[in-house]
Every structure is written in C-alpha cells, then in structure tokens.
Predict the 3D structure of the following.
Amino acid sequence: MLPRHVAIIMDGNGRWARQRQMPRIAGHRAGVENVREIVRFCAESGIEVLTLFAFSSENWRRPPNEIKLLLDLFVIAIEEEIERLHEAGVRLRIIGDDAPFPPKLKKCIAAAEARTANNTRLNLVIAANYGGRWDLTEAVRKLAQKIENNELSTSDISPELIAENLSLADLPEPDLFIRSGGEQRISNYLLWQLAYSELYFTDRLWPDFGTEDFETALHSYAARQRRFGMTGDQVSGKRDTVAGSQAE
Ligand code: IPE
Ligand code: IPE
Ligand code: MG
C-alpha cells in the first residue's frame, strides 16, 4: 500500500556541508535541490500529501546569520520553483506562524499559495516556523474563543473538534513519517497528527536522501501491519481465536 500522506523531517543539511568543509548554508541549498527531486517523485508516484519540515519554532535559537540566510533561501526557492510546481499540478501550502516573517516572504507565500490553489495532483505542505505545540495551542485558543462567545460549550470539546482546528484539518493524517540525518526524535513536529503514523528513521543526510531512499522507506511502510489498537488477526481478517474457540 502506498501512503496517502508522507511527513518528513529534512535533517542533516549542516552536517552534509561540514563533511565537505562548506558553510552550513551550502547544505541548506543542497537540501532545497533535493526537495525538488522528492516532490517530483511524490507527484509521479501518486502520493496525495507531502509535508516537509523546513524551519521549526525552535530554529530561531540558531545564529542570526543562519536564520537570515534560511529565510532568504525560502523566498528564492519559492520564486524559482513555483511555476514548475504549478505545471506539475502541485498545490503549495505553508503551515506555521508567519507573524515574524519579513513582509517579502509573507507576500511570496501568499502569491505562491494563490497561484497553485486549484491544483489537485499533490498537496505540498511546508512547515515553516511550525511547532506541534504551537499548532495545539492555536487550536485551544480558537476553541476557548468560541466558548467565550457562547458559540460552544466545554462538553462539546472532542478529539474530532480539536483535530478540526489544527493546521492540516482538511488533509488525511500522515501515514508515514520519515526523518533523515540519524536523530530519532520528533522535534516538536506534527505532535497530534503523528499519533498513528509509521515512523521511519534513516542516517542518510537530507541532501543525500534520494528517490531510492524514499522507495526503501515506502517498502518498509508497505511491509508493516497497521493495527490501530486492534489485534493482528482482526486486521488481517483472520478468524478471531477467542471467538473461534467459543463457536466450536
Ligand atoms: C535541517 O538541517 C534543516 C533545518 C533545520 C533548517 P540542519 O541544519 O538541522 O542540519 P544538521 O542537523 O545541523 O546537520
Ligand atoms: C528539526 O531539525 C527541524 C527541521 C528539520 C526544520 P532540527 O535539526 O532543528 O532538530 P533538533 O534540534 O536536532 O531536534
Ligand atoms: Mg538538525
């Protein structure tokens, strides 16, 4: 089975650059080149949603120079790629808190989202200044506001209502999570939405994570049994042993 939604933490750009005695930003540039390949692969293979973590709410802790270069690179990448993405039927969406972004980046994001709004082949979601805790906090704020306005009562709050108020409310939850770069952690990514995703970690640094690596991850995913709390036999449709013995 092909996952409908793949969510990736693109990690390892800095180490990739360091291995080559290059500045960290060269690693980020190589990372963007790789995004192009992976997006093309996803659009061709029939994956519906690809969510990429580009900048976390914690990445503001980096040196100001790296942050500035990353934000500049973001503008350049959107401007350079948007027509190609549009022609490939990709719908682009940015999630995260855009309040601290420079006006130029905000404008560029709005234009890119509007340009590709009617495309249906692949939903490409870029998480920028995103954090799972931020996302949940925003959802709580929205619900609390409704309660304050007497539009909602506390007993109406349910997992579904929370999910409806998160960034990716209209999209299926990630089936497969991939993290490159060797770390095995979530780093405040899609905390709620990853509840039942299959996790795949690889040591490959992001600029080197090619389409063959992506295919390896897809094969790993396809070989897994997703049980969602049930027994393996329930999922595979075999006769339940307890019920079976009762029937005999
Ligand atoms: C991921 O690569 C990209 C961003 C966080 C922007 P890193 O920059 O974290 O690369 P490493 O982890 O230092 O190798
Ligand atoms: C996670 O990578 C965020 C992105 C890839 C954008 P980090 O490199 O920032 O994660 P930590 O800090 O090592 O957990
Ligand atoms: Mg990192």
About this structure: The chain has nine helices and six strands. The chain has a mean pLDDT of 96. The pocket of magnesium ion (ligand 3) is lined by residues 11, 181 (CB under 6 Å). The first strand starts at residue 5 and ends at 9.
